[in-house]
Amino acid sequence: MREDRDLTHTELAAFGAELDALRLRTLENLGAADARYIRRVRAAVRGCCWIGRGLLMFGWFPPTWLLGTLLLGLGKILENMELGHNVMHGQYDWMNDPEFAGRQYEWDIAGPADFWRHTHNHIHHTYTNVLGKDDDVGYGLVRLFPEQKWKPFYRWQPLWVSLQALLFQYAVAIQHLRLDKYFKGRLGKEELRPLLRQFNAKVARQWAKDYLAFPLLGLFSGAFGAVLVGNLVANLLRNLWTFTVIFCGHFTEKAAVFPASVLEGETRGHWYLRQLRGSSNLEGGVLLHILTGNLSHQIEHHLFPDLPARRYAELAGEVREIAARYGQTYNSGSLSRQFASVLRRIWVYRRPSAVDA
User: Fold this and answer.
1) Residue 338 half-sphere exposure, CB side, CA atoms within 13 Å?
2) Domain-by-domain residue ranges, the chain?
3) Exposed e or buried b for every residue in 214-234, given b needs 16+ CB within 10 A?
4) DSSP track, 69-110
5) Which residues form the Fatty acid desaturase domain (predicted)?
């Protein structure tokens, strides 16, 4: 359980002012090094994907198939986490480069980027961990906090979570369709139909690329099956990794949720405090931070979603110090520890009688 000190209105104002000042100092310091970094990430994504796809053309030969699949999976993870997610937050809009324009970027997953920009950038980052407002709390399938009202299908949530992890790129895309509202009669067919067309078109393009075009190229070397399975496994690796990182950033033992009433009269200081209390960091080396798109610094990402994620590591020390001075928990731990606490929540809160131990 968290043991955070309640802040007075004066302290909240000062808390918010300190974090605002930290954000402004970082914005003023953005420049060539940040632009060079994201261009190198883009080059790494292209290199991993094309080398990986090239190796898969050699068929099932163990070294090339395994290495090709892993490189393609690595490229997809980097594109999803460190490139696409961060670019779509507008972190590099200041470069005035169309390839890194947040509102134009389209990423390499089944969900249309426009869906993500609305459900994640707008809804989730505005209403982080507010019950009834932030659909990311359990994604409508999982009870992770005792404050969530129990429903009978939560009994089977270990199964739902497993399926969600395997198909994560589809799960986050379907979230935007709001099928729950449709089946409850609160969303009409005329509203759902254009969203379905957009979703189906993006899925068709992704499937045509990964499961038709590249496997057909493999026919020339007799590697159709090897390429097809390699693409499938690479997407699976990306799904599982993304699921793990996102759940570890939001649903660990010390992460908090909030009632909708918290939004009434919410100040900048209140908003910052909610981001801090609702987020969890992962501790590790540079490679872990890059592979997570620096969402290993989920606290800093929720505080400053529009700052280049490569800056979060240097901001973390100051954020931790500010949190300590105001008597707030800075929730950080190893990947194994944080993920274990997520799995515990999934198991414990499947029952209606569960209490937060």
Assistant:
1) 25
2) 9-348
3) bbeebeeeebbebbbebbebb
4) HHHHHHHHHHIIIIIIIHHHTTTTGGG--GGG-TTT---SSS
5) 64-332
